[in-house]
Amino acid sequence: MHPTIERMTEIVASGDDSKIVEILAEDVRFLPPTYWKTWHGRAPVAAVLGHVGQVFSDFRYRRIMGEGKDWALEFQCRIGDRDAVGVDLITLDDAGLIAEFEVVMRPHSSVGALREEMNKRVMTDARVLEFRDAMR
Predict the structure, then answer these.
(1) β 39-40/24-31 pair status
(2) Which of 18, 29, 52, 120 is the most buried (most CB within 10 A)?
(3) What is the chain's pLDDT, residue by residue, as a tens digit (136 residues)?
């Protein structure tokens, strides 16, 4: 497994989302499952991912597939009282940092619950509001 992917699984397992910044490329792009916009940049993406870590519970990776720069990490979690499954699609840059991070999830009702919880958090977080121009 690529060291960055291994480190990501360690960070997720630790619950310390402040460490995610160390494996993100400066110009990382994050494509969330909740809307058709993309977050750009290390600091904005780290701030958003920090909230995701607080919204998901019982999170675990079920399978990790990939090689080289392209990886798919299948996960399951809970969002409130709803179960969800999804896949983190990750592309690494030449330095081995996460350059693109796309999340796909199901079922639709769980994605809706995620969107609702994330909106409650990010709309009141000064860090994220500062980065609103990073979403395009």
Answers:
(1) antiparallel
(2) 52
(3) 899 999 999 888 777 778 899 999 999 999 998 888 898 999 888 888 887 878 888 999 999 999 999 999 999 999 999 999 999 999 999 999 999 999 999 999 998 998 888 888 777 776 666 666 656 5
